[in-house]
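Please go through the protein record below and see whether the fold suits the sequence. Record follows.
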Amino acid sequence: MALITIDGIDLNEYCIVDGLEETFTLIEGSQAQRKQNFAMFYDIVGTEFKHTVLFRKNPEIGIEKWNELWAILSQPVDFHTIAIYAGPYFIGKANGKNETQDYMTYLGHISTGTRKLEYIDSAGNKHWGDYSIEITPNIAYYRNRGRVLAIT
C-alpha cells in the first residue's frame, strides 16, 4: 500500500515517497477570548492537518515518468483527493474509548512545490532532484460532541 495517493494515483509507480511531515493546528471558534481575569477561554472547534511530502526518484523508472509526476503535482487545479496512510488518526470516542483509523482522506490544495535541477546531460535532458510539496486541506477536521466530521 502506498503511503500517499493523489487523485487515486499510487505514487509508487512514479517515485519513492521519502518523507512525510505532518503538522496540525487547533482551530478556534468564535467564542475564544481572554476573560477579564486574563484567563484564556478556548473554543476549540477542530483540528486542521497539513502535510509536506518529499519524493525521491525511483532509479527503476525513466526521466519521462519522473517529469510526468511533476506535471501531475503542479497542475493548476483547486483541489486533489489526498489519501494519507500514516495513522492512527483520532476519529472520535465510543463507550469511553478513543476510536482511530489508519488513514485520512481529504480534498487538498497543493499550495507549493519545489525541485532542484541536478544536471543536464549531453543530449540536453534535464535531470531533476527530489521533489517536495505542501498540501493544505480544504476543510479542517471539525469535531462535534467528540466525533470528527470531515475525515472519511
Observations:
- The radius of gyration is 19 Å.
- The mean pLDDT is 84.
- The domain at 4-30+40-148 is CATH 2.40.30 (Elongation Factor Tu (Ef-tu); domain 3).
